[in-house]
Amino acid sequence: MMRKLYQGKIRDLLICLSLSNLTFLNVWNILVSAPYYEATKPPPPLRFMGFVLNVLFLGIIFWLGITLARRAGNPLWLKLAKCVSFAILVCRLTPCESILQVFHST
CA dist 39 to 31, 32, 34, 42, 43, Å? Predict the structure, then answer.
């Protein structure tokens, strides 16, 4: 029982980190594209570390939200949390079409 609960929390945390990483997809595009990698050197370490910390902090905020929704025990809160996470995903992945078009044209 306890192991299953622990695995569920880890799964939620990984999903929230993945969602937060997807929300920063346009920043990944800027960070990994020119002029950093045209000069064959990586992006500045402080900029990269700051970005990774932003992804982690947003992931923790998402995780706290879903954890509080689960603990409330109200099905309405869980439905609301699912709808909000889906809305975030749809709103953030819509600009990906333009990114994919750039990669497809090259």
Answer: 13, 12, 8, 8, 10
> How many domains, the chain?
1
pLDDT tens for the chain, 106 residues long, are 556 667 778 888 898 898 888 888 777 777 776 565 555 666 677 877 888 898 999 899 888 888 888 888 888 888 888 888 788 777 766 665 555 555 555 5
Model pTM?
0.70
Please tell me whether residue 24 adopts helix, strand or coil conformation. Answer: coil
Residues 69/77, Cβ–Cβ less than 8 Å: yes
Q: Containing domain of residue 41, as a range?
A: 2-105
**Measured torsion, CA atoms of residues 44, 49, 52, 57, in degrees rounded to the nearest 10:** -140
Whole-Å CA distances, 13 to 42, 46, 47: 28, 25, 24
Structure tokens at 52: 């990774």
